[in-house]
């Protein structure tokens, strides 16, 4: 794909993952990247999506905009997370079809997998059970959009692909404790505890496992898929490893210099028991393999957050 000749829209392009996708596209020679801001284009509304396509006239769309958060945010907003994510994705696909856009890259979620899916998760078990309850509304909304993308390909020839990234982390992540995911939440809590000399309370019992992908690796995967992947089946995007949340806490405590008490609040939910992906399909179909060492990625994330303007 000659990016220099393409007009590209990146919804959510000012966000965590989106910023890195925009940077990668520009590095590949793309000179016309349009990032719609939610104040100007509320994609939950169909008219806003229609106006976006009319004004930007994209050849390629990366749909990264989403209503997301950690376990607590999902528990507080199940209806909003379901409705907003479903509507945004449906409008991007429908208006993209009407505008005859050449490619749409849809970003799903591994929250769509069954709660007790065999580890590592393979794409062909996506429909073998109900998702983990705390994030099921979000996961099911994203899974419905996978079906919509496949149906649109079948009926209208819409060239829409769906990728399923694992939990992301890296510089620029969301460190708001009300809505952040596990790595930025731990980093912030440990650094603040170092200042205040207090213990750190973490949700659950520490037994669940997770897999994490450095955000720049994920951006590279999305761009590679846009260039090389043209099929309807979903594709996992991950790093191919598994770490217990308790071990993750110890690692981040060590890297942040925290040596105080870690208290596990078992009255809070653990989330999905295990989470790790089979990433072979991404490597086979569009040549993606994660490159960033996990500890090095954590160090870079901590260093970014420690900048005075970030952690003040």
Folded structure, characterized:
This protein is 43% helix and 14% strand. It has a domain at 3-170 and 212-240 and 275-291: NAD(P)-binding Rossmann-like Domain (Rossmann fold, 3-Layer(aba) Sandwich), CATH 3.40.50.720. The longest helix has 21 residues, at 78-98. The chain has a six-stranded parallel β-sheet with strand order 2-1-3-4-5-10, sandwiched between helices. A two-stranded parallel sheet has the order 6-9. It is of the alpha/beta class.
Which properties best describe this structure?
single chain, 312 residues, alpha/beta, Rossmann fold, 6-stranded parallel sheet, two-stranded parallel ribbon, 11 helices, 12 strands
CATH architecture of one domain: 3-Layer(aba) Sandwich
Number of strands: 12
**In CATH terms, what is the fold-level topology of one domain?**
Rossmann fold
Rg: 19 Å
Task: Give a short synopsis of this structure.
The chain has helices spanning 16-27, 46-56, 71-76, 78-98, 136-156, 182-196, 215-228, 245-256, 280-286, 294-305, 308-311, and strands spanning 7-11, 32-34, 60-63, 103-107, 160-165, 167-169, 200-203, 209-210, 212-214, 235-237, 243-244, 262-265. It is of the alpha/beta class and 312 residues long. The protein has a domain at 3-170 and 212-240 and 275-291: Rossmann fold (3-Layer(aba) Sandwich).
Fold blueprint:
Layout: E1 7-11, H1 16-27, E2 32-34, H2 46-56, E3 60-63, H3 71-76, H4 78-98, E4 103-107, H5 136-156, E5 160-165, E6 167-169, H6 182-196, E7 200-203, E8 209-210, E9 212-214, H7 215-228, E10 235-237, E11 243-244, H8 245-256, E12 262-265, H9 280-286, H10 294-305, H11 308-311
Parallel strand pairs: 1-2, 1-3, 3-4, 4-5, 5-10, 6-9, 7-12
Antiparallel strand pairs: 8-11
Helix pairs in contact: 1-7, 2-4, 4-5, 6-8, 8-10
